[in-house]
Amino acid sequence: MAAASTKGGLAHRNKPAPKKAESRSLKRKRGQEDLNKLREAVNKLDPKSPDIKKFTDLPLCEATASGLRASHFEVLTDVQRAAIPLALKGKDILGAAKTGSGKTLAFLVPVLEKLYLAQWTEYDGLGALIISPTRELAVQIFEVLRKVGRNHYFSAGLVIGGKSLKEEAERLGRMNILVCTPGRMLQHLDQTAGFDVNNLQILVLDEADRIMDMGFQSAVDALVEHLPKTRQTLLFSATQSKRVSDLARLSLKDPEYVSVHESAQTATPASLQQSYIVTPLSEKLDTLWGFLRANLKSKIIVFLSSGKQVRFVYESFKRMQPGIPLLHLHGRQKQVARMEITSRFASAKHSCLFATDVVARGVDFPAVDWVIQVDCPEDADTYIHRVGRTARYESKGRAVLFLEPSEEEGFLKRLEHKRVPIQKVNVREKKKKSIKNELQSHCFQSPDLKYLGQKAFISYTRSIYLQKDKEVFKFNELDLDGFAESLGLPGTPQIKFQKGEDIKRIKNAPRAAISSGSDTDSDGDGRKRKDKDQVRTKYQKMAERQNQDVLSTHYRKLLGEDGPASDDEADFLSVKRVLDGDAQLDAAAGGDKRANDTTTTEQPKVVKLGKSELVIDSHRREKLLKSKKKLAKYMEKGNKLVFDDDGNAHPIYELQDEEDFAQEGPADKLRRQFVEAETEKVKEADVEDKQLAKQRRKEKRERQKARERGEEVERHGGALPQLEVDGGAGGEDPLALLRSLPIAGGEADSDGEEEEAREPPKKKARKWFQDDSEKEEEERREKKKKKGGKRVIEMAHEPDNLEDLEALAAGLLEE
């Protein structure tokens, strides 16, 4: 009954009351009327109207308007004033504006409005796709979307690398808005089953010029193939591309080009103070160190060309402690670490961030004072994006560019063409401080830091060599030796290419034949050629690897070959290995030649290993000479020897000739003589064993008798009772007969010797006030005290038979 009444009650409550039903229908009608009014207002909107200055002047839904108010966005920026009205009317847009001008809201507001006007729900699938070139920028866009769209009912997701692909795939089907990076999104489109993008309404490409660049070209082309043709497309960047091929790839239809700052005098914010310093490559780190020491109360971003340089500068400066908190960020880090470092730098008041171009575009770090570009950017657009991390939205900022003397003229022309104002400044002499010695000391103490320095050197030289703009980046004019020295390296690391050489031939050449700082032969191939058949020692190899160990420098100085100014004909000291006594490698190879002699012979080398010979006819056989372990396989095996009484050596086992064996007699007779001799030896050993066993039994009986006498004396109060002797004048001992009798259960001595009587142990004298019981108790306590409270059984030798073990067990059980 209770269950039935409960069901009835639930059924009654599920029926809507007449008043509630009417209120719902009225609310639905009111919502539909508001939606129709909003659509009419969008249709009547004039995108070129000068009256549009605030977000309240735009026809926006209440959910978007309240989210903007809660996020304190009120006044429209120039790019927002020009782009949002056109996007609300469904136009495709190419938006270009200065860095920090508010481009993120210029496409987020149209995305929310587009889906709201279409009454988009979770059952309709993916409605908006926002693509960003870097993970940091994607995370930033997603955070702004969460703030502005907090009152909407759309589901939004962040799809970037570094997270679980499976977990992302499980949620993709329920997402209405996705913020992603191109590679990760393409991976889901290819691998995630059931992921449908056929209903996509709007596509946004932030930093479109970078996404359409060669780095993402294949990924973007494959991604666009999955998307429907009927969609709205928005492209935004600080430096926009107008190439017809790019527009055709994205299927843009009559796009509106929005460039509010195209008529401006400069391509960078007016509040940004820009300057450059001409500094040699070998002094860049010295200048950077002096700059950091002079600006400890600032927030600084330092851009370098590669992640390996970022790691080296960060690790080395961290050891030197400039006095400002240091952070580093590059693309090789884990996603969790990248997000944590980004958050820490954004919230820091004074800090220095060493970074690559992963944060050069779009990332909004608040209150950045300085942007330092230690390495020259690849083009003027990259420069504009880098300096855009400061002086954002009416705030002030300063930027400094380090230029190598060979880069100055060419790069200044590129900046002038892009309308970038920049002025030259000089470093004060008193601010300069050389840190080469300190870096070299740290590299010497830490092999890991030296390894990072070598990788930083190679990555920088490769980036300069592979740059397309050869008018700016002149590889041949770089001081590579000075650069290596400025990094604290003991020598110039080897690089696998040189200007004007065949790259494939150099890549396939041996590593030892390539060098950047050594003398060249007549062919210009870097290091002097070594003959292929030459066998070099490990010391010579160590000295040639200048970038591996500082020990090689000391080795060259020891030989008087320090630097390229040494004699070209001088060779390294040849180290000879002794083979089998006085046989040496050079003598075995034929003649008194040096180990590094480059002359070759037609006949293969023959090395004598004792009585045997080893033919060196391949490079693998040459390697055998360097390993004692492998060389031992080819050497004669030694024999163990024994020495007779005269001191003559003989093998342990000597085989007798058949003739000598036949002269000794028939085999059966020799076998019988051998068995008889061995039998006699066994009998003699058996007699000795029996004598030893007899001696042990005798000693055991003596110990047993002594133990019995002691117990008897203790039982009678310290003295045995004596028998009275009749006729004592005779003086005969009445117990003499008993002592001569054998003990019951024992054996009589075969030799008839009488056992010596031992005196009983002396007992402690009884005190006059003690009776027998008290005396025994005191003696027992004394024994326990001497033995540590434990009973100790003394054994003359270790028990080796059953009788000894039984005696030991009886003693342990006795109390």
The major β-sheet equals: 7 strands, parallel
The geometry reads as: elongated
Order of strands across the widest beta sheet? 3-4-2-5-6-1-7
What distance lies between the first and last C-alpha atoms, to the nearest angstrom? 83 Å
Instruction: Look at the structure and give the mean pLDDT.
Output: 78
Low-confidence stretches: 1-14, 498-533, 561-601, 723-730, 744-757
CATH topology of the largest domain: Rossmann fold
Proportion of helical residues = 40-55%
What is the number of helical segments per DSSP (H or I, 4+ residues)? 30
Overall number of strands: 20
User: Can you name the CATH architecture of the largest domain?
Assistant: 3-Layer(aba) Sandwich
Q: Which structural category fits the helices and strands?
A: alpha/beta
Question: By CATH's scheme, which homologous superfamily of the largest domain applies?
Answer: P-loop containing nucleotide triphosphate hydrolases
**Strand residue content:** 5-15%
How many domain units?
5
What does this structure look like?
By secondary structure, the chain is an alpha/beta fold. It folds into five domains: 32-259, Rossmann fold (3-Layer(aba) Sandwich), CATH 3.40.50; 272-438, Rossmann fold (3-Layer(aba) Sandwich); 445-558, no CATH class; 578-634, no CATH class; 770-815, no CATH class. The strands form five sheets. Strands 3-4-2-5-6-1-7 form a seven-stranded parallel β-sheet, with helices on both faces. It has a seven-stranded parallel β-sheet with strand order 10-11-9-12-13-8-14, with helices on both faces. Strand 12, helix 15 and strand 13 form a beta-alpha-beta unit. The longest helix is centred in the C-terminal third of the chain and has 49 residues, at 667-715. The two termini are 83 Å apart.
